[in-house]
Amino acid sequence: MKIIENININNVKEFLIKLFREFFFIIIVISSFTLGYFSRVVHHDINNKKNVEIKRMKDLSISIETTGNLIIIDKVSGDLTKYDDSVGIALFNFYASKIIYDINNKK
Fold first, then answer.
1. Nearest-angstrom CA–CA distance, 54 and 50
2. Model pLDDT for residues 74-105, shown as the tens digit of each residue
3. How many structural domains is the chain composed of?
């Protein structure tokens, strides 16, 4: 009876080892397909980014409302974009600091 138990235990061990190998193989296959799918999706998204269009002043009209909001109107398409006053102030500060930097570094 002890021999039968040993044979059963050995059979169970062999079965579990085969089961683990098959399970491990399935996990590797699923992981590979998943990584392949997501790398294709990410690569596709990167290639589909829109080109940035630089607009010239001749195509735009810029004004400031009485509330201080910045308004940019595209003369070509007629699109109107409003920005909070903090955006206009930030733009002004950027350009002012660039002008000051250029003046201070002129030699």
1. 12
2. 998 888 989 998 888 888 899 899 999 989 88
3. 2
